[in-house]
Design a protein that fits this description.
The structure holds 3 protein chains of 3 kinds. Chain A contains 8 helices and 21 strands. Chain A has helices spanning 42-50, 92-102, 107-121, 136-148, 166-183, 194-200, 218-223, 228-233, and strands at 4-13, 16-26, 31-35, 57-62, 65-66, 77-80, 154-158, 186-191, 203-208, 211-216, 240-249, 252-257, 260-265, 276-281, 287-288, 295-304, 309-315, 318-324, 335-339, 346-349, 355-356. In chain A, the strands form 4 sheets. A 6-stranded mixed beta sheet of chain A has the order 6-7-8-3-9-10, sandwiched between helices. Chain A has a 6-stranded antiparallel beta sheet with strand order 13-12-11-14-20-21. A 5-stranded antiparallel beta sheet of chain A has the order 15-19-16-17-18, with no helix packed on it. Chain B is mainly α. Chain B is globular, with a radius of gyration of 27 Å. The relative contact order of chain B is 0.12. Classes of the chains: A alpha+beta, B mainly alpha, C mainly alpha. Chains B and C meet through α1, α3, α4, α5 and α7 of B and α1, α4, α5, α6 and α7 of C.
Chain lengths: 360, 311, 280
């Protein structure tokens, strides 16, 4: 196992910059998830680590050794591709043993490694099948098996679950995580799916536009987002954003939305020169007042999810989602009173999207 | 300590440099055998051929080889045979391309619809394409021959001729012989190309049009034609160039005769080089043909750009 | 096809009639070739337009095989066509791989160059090739023909091979390189096995093309022992233009190898020709 250090990495395709100076230090044995929308540069970063692309500037070290000029075959890493990239003309056993054969590993050692990896992944009876005779989930397992037989310094995953259906994805999430615990291998996992990021990562790296937005544990990103991008990307249903006005007053700073006062803060907002602010609040933190007190909002849509209910509300021309595990007897068109706790509010600069913290 | 770091830096830089050289040269490594061969066997002779056009090159005359300037070209200007060949080239190319295209398109449309036995039919109707061009020429020459071929007798039976004559020996119709042979031989090429283009049209577009109420003819006009248009344009362009260049069918079937009535420019070049061994004059005609083809291609590309801009 | 059952039936009758006509027109000339080749000489003129002779004979084939040089021509053509097919496919595989997998300086011009070689009249270089090849001993030589045919066919074959390489996902090679293979190793162990059908199709295309070439063979080789089948047949036709039975028997023999290749590659035709469709 090895640490991966990424220092000030830049990458452009022609004149188009894709990565604009990325620094990440991945500890040995850590499971790091790179997450972001498509085109954010997360896959490019993974391919740079693998050596499949040449970086424009910067340095990557694997286990302390600079690998900038090493071809992929000399980096001792394994990668699981989105399409699995199984060799169609080789059997399952052939796919898993290819890398060991290239290393001229003795035949018995190969056979042992393939058998034990196959057993670990439940591929025991499929060893002699060709990839086209396998289901999507089985192919996924073979791709995993191909990675683990070689005991590499690090595992790279490029959206490995995106071709599976929802149920299988849930199961594979669990299995990948379990494997990681057993093998303790340094892993870099790329996904656009924030649920995969939340459930699997030791640490999440949120990328957008080729720039790291935030690095932290899943709950840090969830509870304490650095900017509006991270706040909006992590979490489902997504965080609500409301355009608010800042009203400085003698009893503290008031925040109003569409003429109704949302909350009153005892402390001023840091750098609260602006009069406008974007207020973020998670849907599960918006509460029904139970009567007509609080903010008055119209019910636009009721979505029962079984686990609870998502209410889509309109508050003075702005939309607000509310998640509750109750099953409120509200219909479209009803007026609901909602309330929020000011501790659950996150404030963002309306112009730059950066987080504004409450002073104090 | 410092020295060690410097050294490792130097090694790194050297490796970076050599890996970069490798990265740049690797594709050329794979392509180089072909590049060398093409340069030596096609480009160098092409340049030499162009230079021959300005020289007196007679294969059997060791004294020849001097530069003659543009005299070959003025000779061409006054060469009635050349102008005749040029007219024949135009007729030969236009008629052959149009007939190949029309019959090829009909065949492609027929084969695009699944029916029992399609695979077998497809193999059979594409078979002429595999027949060597020279053999297709010989074969048709025999079919037109009243001694062994049925066609002259059928013509009589249909009342199109009074006696079984060989069309290839009739100066006013002889060009139709090679045209029929090349059309027979070339239909599969058009059909294959157009069939591939037809099969690349997504089926759901047709379904959407049908749901929108378009009939078969409207679907053909509003979906098939626009989708095929680029393939048709490029295929027609390339085929026309190719057909105007192909001399072998003419050489095999008529040798340009009777009375030069089937001589096209390409076969005229070959005759000049092969029979008269006058390489200089042959090369000059070849240069003229090359220029005509280049102008034709440039014109087509120009028109195409205009159409794209207009559209 | 919707509409009344009558219209539906009429449509299919029309469809099959047209298809039938195409099949007849495509096959009739070949059928006639075969028919004359098995017609005894004494029936040739008396039974001119009969669809099948009242008596069959293989005498023409026997005399072509035993009393002419066609077996030699056949051998020469096989050597030339097979040699051309192998070298062309080898060279084209390299170029096609470079086109498919690399973005490199000069690629645009290289592709342009290859397209241009498909456009210019090949008769143009007959004379220079003759002058270049004669002092090198490449006239009256099968090697000379293999060289020139390879050069003609490499551009088309390269585009063809590119399309077959393009069909192999890049990720397979990347996976192999991560598994520890060099790029060339990945090409050899992963990509080439997967392009085998494409390579076979290319070999077939090029064999057929080389088998059919006439003009350069006619110009460069005049000696009997390096004459290819097309040239031999043409010479035979001009010399003994009355022995139709033997000529057509030789013609049928010339067809055999290309027909075999045709039926092997037939499945790949549509895919292959769309890919690089420049030349038939």
């Amino acid at each position: 196992m090895a640490a991966i250090d990424i220092t000030d990495v830049h990458k452009s395709f022609g004149k188009v910059p894709v990565l604009k100076g990325v620094d990440i230090a991945i500890a040995s044995g850590e499971f790091v998830v790179l997450v972001g929308p498509s085109g954010c540069g997360k896959s490019t970063l993974l391919r740079l680590i693998a050596g499949l692309e040449e970086m424009s500037a910067g340095e990557i070290r694997i286990g302390g050794r600079v690998v900038n000029d090493l071809p992929p075959k000399d980096r001792d890493i394994a990668m699981v591709f989105q399409s699995y990239a199984l060799y169609p003309h080789m059997t399952v056993a052939g796919n898993m043993s290819y890398s060991l054969k290239l290393k001229r590993t003795p035949r018995e050692v190969i056979a042992d490694a393939v058998t034990s990896a196959g057993a670990k992944l439940g591929l025991g009876l499929l060893q002699e099948r060709k990839p086209r005779e396998l289901s999507g989930g089985q192919r996924q397992r073979v791709a995993m098996g191909r990675a683990i037989v070689r005991k590499p310094k690090a595992f790279l995953f490029d959206e490995p679950l995106s071709n599976l259906d929802a149920r299988l994805r849930e199961q594979m999430r669990f299995e990948i995580k379990k494997l990681h615990r057993e093998l303790g291998a340094t892993s870099v996992y790329v996904t656009h799916d924030q649920i995969e990021a939340m459930t699997m990562a030791d640490r999440i790296v949120a990328l957008n536009g080729g720039i790291i937005q935030q690095v932290g544990t899943p709950l840090e990103l969830y509870d304490d987002p650095a900017n509006i991008f991270v706040a909006g990307f992590i979490g489902s249903p997504a965080m609500n954003f409301l355009e608010g006005n800042v009203l400085p007053g003698p009893g503290g700073t008031g925040i109003s939305v569409g003429g109704q006062t949302l909350c009153r803060l005892s402390m001023p907002l840091a750098g609260s020169a602006q009069s406008k602010v974007t207020v973020g609040i998670r849907p599960e933190r918006v509460m029904l007042a139970g009567d007509t007190s609080g903010l008055q909002a119209q019910v636009v849509l009721v979505e029962p999810t079984g686990l609870g209910t998502v209410l889509h509300l309109e508050l003075a021309g702005q939309f607000l989602k509310l998640f509750t595990t109750e099953r409120p007897a509200l219909k479209i068109g009803d007026t609901a009173g909602v309330k929020v706790d000011s501790a659950d509010l996150r404030f963002f600069d309306a112009a730059t999207g950066q987080r504004i913290r409450v002073a104090g | 300590m410092t020295v060690a770091i410097d050294q490792s830096m130097a090694i790194r830089h050297r490796r970076a440099w050599s890996s970069r050289v490798l990265a740049v040269s690797e594709p050329w490594l794979y392509a180089s055998p072909a590049v060398i061969l093409l340069s030596a066997i096609l480009l160098v002779p092409l340049a030499i051929g162009i230079s021959y056009a300005f020289r007196d090159i007679q294969l059997l005359d060791p004294m020849s080889g001097g530069y003659v300037g543009l005299s070959h070209f003025s000779e061409i200007w006054n060469d009635a045979n050349f102008w005749n060949a040029l007219r024949n080239t135009l007729q030969w190319t236009v008629v052959s391309v149009i007939l190949q295209f029309v019959f090829g398109l009909i065949l492609a449309l027929m084969l695009n619809r699944p029916f029992p036995g399609r695979a077998v039919v497809q193999a059979l109707v594409f078979l002429p394409w595999a027949v060597p061009a020279f053999l297709s020429g010989l074969n048709w020459a025999w079919l037109f021959n009243p001694v062994v071929g049925p066609i002259p007798h059928w013509m009589v039976a249909l009342g199109l001729a009074s006696t079984p004559e060989n069309i290839l020996s009739d100066p006013s119709h002889a060009l139709w012989g090679p045209i029929i042979a090349i059309v027979w031989w070339g239909i599969p090429f058009f059909a294959i190309t157009l069939l591939a283009a037809l099969q690349s049209i997504p089926k759901d577009i047709y379904e959407a049009a049908e749901i929108d109420g378009a009939g078969p003819l409207q679907r053909f006009a509003s979906i098939t034609v626009p989708f095929l248009a680029p393939t048709i344009a490029i295929t027609l362009l390339l085929r026309a160039v190719w057909i105007s260049n192909s001399a072998d069918l003419i050489v095999v079937m008529t040798k340009g005769g009777p009375a030069d009535s089937t001589q096209i420019v390409a076969s005229y070049i070959f005759t000049q080089a092969f029979q008269r061994l006058d390489f200089g004059y042959a090369s000059a005609i070849a240069v003229v043909l090359l220029v005509i083809l280049l102008v034709y291609s440039a014109l087509l590309i120009f028109v195409r750009q205009k159409l794209i801009k207009a559209g | 096809m919707k509409g009344s059952p009558f219209r539906k039936t009429a449509f299919w009758v029309f469809h099959y009639t047209v298809i039938g006509l195409y099949v007849v027109v495509a096959l009739f000339p070949l059928y006639w070739l075969l028919k004359v080749s098995v017609t005894p000489n004494n029936l040739l003129y008396s039974e001119g337009v009969r669809m099948w002779p009242s008596r069959m004979t293989f005498d023409h084939y026997l005399s072509v095989i035993h009393h002419t040089d066609f077996p030699l021509f056949f051998r020469n053509s096989v050597i030339v066509a097979a040699g051309t097919a192998v070298f062309t496919t080898l060279f084209a595989a390299g170029t096609g791989y470079a086109f498919s997998r690399f973005v490199f300086r000069g690629k645009f011009w290289l592709i342009g160059l290859m397209l241009v070689t498909q456009m210019f009249p090949l008769v143009m270089i007959i004379a220079p090739i003759f002058r270049m090849f004669a002092p090198l001993g490449l006239t009256n030589s099968l090697t000379g023909l293999i060289i020139i045919y390879t050069a003609f066919n490499v551009p088309f074959a390269a585009f063809l091979m590119q399309s077959f390489f393009d069909a192999v996902p890049r990720e397979l090679e990347e996976a192999a390189m991560i598994d520890g293979a060099t790029r060339f190793g990945a090409l050899r162990q992963i990509v080439l096995p997967l392009t085998m059908p494409g390579i076979a199709a290319t070999l077939g295309f090029i064999f057929t093309a080389a088998w059919s070439e006439l003009l350069f063979a006619l110009m460069l080789n005049s000696k009997q022992d390096t004459t290819t089948f097309p040239v031999g047949l043409l010479t035979f036709v001009s010399k003994f233009s009355v022995d139709f039975g033997q000529m057509m028997a030789a013609g049928v023999l010339a067809l055999i190898p290309v027909c075999i290749f045709f039926f092997i590659i037939q499945r790949h035709l549509v895919q292959g020709l769309t890919a690089g469709a420049v030349k038939g």
